[in-house]
């Protein structure tokens, strides 16, 4: 058959759970020359339309021509860059996830829909000439607009950026919108203020050595693990390495674990560099995301700072990738396309032939092992930068102590001393809410979630019970659900309760609570942190959110109220995560010029690994844990994938996994171990029963070869349509 353009068949990755490309005819009346791989395209799918990306063109299809449908339209003429397409294809292969869904995760919503990017989406705004000359008193009846105008008029260059606006104590977006409509304010490109660049720090020997080594590798792929104690000046090392890249006219991609960390980092970037930067995270709206994407793709932005999904931003002229806090679990997406942004970043650096720096005070064991066997260049910063001293760490034995709530007498005494010196205290609690359980004192009944195998958390302030797994909520039970007794008591502690205890113990101190409940509003986290950094707040109580990277110079005492959960959890990674948490929390203390002190409350002060961590440091601890993992043949000495299944019907997930296991056994031929199926640790969540089957192999290749064949057969299992199933490669969380 003669191949003409009329025969062109489009092979499209469609956002759907199926592991295949779909064939279409070009859109009717389309210009075929536009149809190059990477173009975004809308296609008919089942009875609706879906987003897709053209992967390749062909002249033949397995389907007869008359069954092929025409694509609806090309979304626009921009294409997804080939490099990014290649990365997504690799990721789809590695994570055994359908390419269409990978692409849908990678691309901002607006680009999938082909909607116009709103031009007002910006990160920086400035007064127009009219705005500079207007009389703000005409806004007397719009106090927020007036306040905003006054801020603009006082600002350098009449210009404010998002992080500055977020310090407003009112809703600034509607006011800004009104001012944009009045043409008094307009979006403008972020211009770093060149006037006030912060003085460069003098790098110490270790920092300089790290920078030198990274700079020697610019222009080629190499992996660095920058292991530096908290406060050792890792960020300064990134900045110095970035400086070299930026001055060559190349871009830097900087990945951070938490959206909460971007404002502080943005501030530092802005103080340091005169380059343009964009940030990319879940706090942005659709237009802002699309805009950031375009700025990264066009090269308008030199520095791109973002959370997990920023690893998929197109880059016009990439020169360096940095992953800060590389051990952090939030780099791993826990649903849908379960990728690990750090691992994708490494692959991307390889593909781009540029260096990548993974930085952490507490590298994950996988990275440590890679450094130890020289696959990564290992850079060490053993000392804190500047004058800061390392914090001292002590354990508090909780046994037989008379506690005030969750606080031991020893901790309270230390807190008093710290407060007398006018310094700040940080208390870490792993739960928000008042208490993690409500029990009947007469019969032992516990208030359970009706949809999950989990206790309800008591929230006193909102006067309700909430399930932290499915989000369901009900009013506080007044009586036992079994014996109707009114003797209900709470068990355990959450941030709300600690706050209450602190208020009675320290009635004259300013207590700030930081958890998901107090930081729901956009920008509120940043506002609280700024307050704390300015020295407001005597005692800070918070969850994970406060443990990460923030720089709080006046905090000199940090405490972990309960370390015991991490010591005895069933998950083999629990100890690693506990140690990381301890070090991170400790890292918040004594970052200024005052010495810091860290206290850990536990009922098991003799625990050997805890002892190693405290007395010999994280690196020794991680060596010991690595030795344990090695003898148990656990990652990083073996490779895992988890097949999960869930259904409303209790028996279906296990049945499905049984069949799946039989299939896998035939393919695996003893190259991999199949463990299970077993019910998931939380056997029911949000009304669905859950089970899992673990695959473990001694080498990555045989695991992936097995997955590749198996995944394509799974959908043939009769039950595959009755359960929701998903595969998790390199699972981080076995729940
Ligand atoms: P990390 O990223 O390792 O936690 P940072 O880069 O945030 O550490 O540095 C912690 C603090 O120490 C910052 O205030 C930083 O300005 C300061 N610092 C880092 N390196 C030096 C140095 N060589 N000299 C003086 N101060 C430094
Ligand atoms: Zn009861
Ligand atoms: Zn629930």
Brief overview, please?
The chain has 735 residues and is an alpha/beta fold. It has 5 domains: 9-112, 3-Layer(aba) Sandwich (GIY-YIG endonuclease); 124-187, no CATH class; 205-381, P-loop containing nucleotide triphosphate hydrolases (Rossmann fold), CATH 3.40.50.300; 392-434 and 493-628, Rossmann fold, CATH 3.40.50; 639-729, 2-Layer Sandwich (Alpha-Beta Plaits), CATH 3.30.70.360.
* Heterogens: adenosine-5'-diphosphate, zinc ion
Tell me the CATH superfamily of the largest domain. P-loop containing nucleotide triphosphate hydrolases
N- to C-terminal separation? 54 Å
Main sheet summary: 7 strands, parallel
CATH topology of the largest domain: Rossmann fold
The total number of structural domains is: 5
Report Rg: 28 Å
CATH class of the largest domain: Alpha Beta
* Poorly predicted segments: 1-5
In CATH, the architecture of the largest domain is 3-Layer(aba) Sandwich
Number of helices: 23
Shape: globular
Beta-strand content: 15-25%
Helix/strand-derived category reads alpha/beta
Mean pLDDT: 89
Residue share in helix: 25-40%
Give your account of this protein's structure.
The protein has about 725 residues and is of the alpha/beta class. The chain folds into 5 domains: about 10-110, GIY-YIG endonuclease (3-Layer(aba) Sandwich), CATH 3.40.1440; about 125-185, no CATH class; about 205-380, Rossmann fold (3-Layer(aba) Sandwich); about 390-435 and about 495-630, P-loop containing nucleotide triphosphate hydrolases (Rossmann fold); about 640-730, Alpha-Beta Plaits (2-Layer Sandwich), CATH 3.30.70.360. A 7-stranded parallel β-sheet has the order 11-12-10-13-14-9-15, sandwiched between helices. Helix 1 packs across helix 2 (about 100-105) and helix 19 (about 575-585) runs antiparallel to helix 21 (about 620-630). About 45% of the residues are buried. It binds adenosine-5'-diphosphate and zinc ion (2 copies). One zinc ion (ZN) binds near residues 440, 483 and 485. One zinc ion (ZN) binds next to loops.
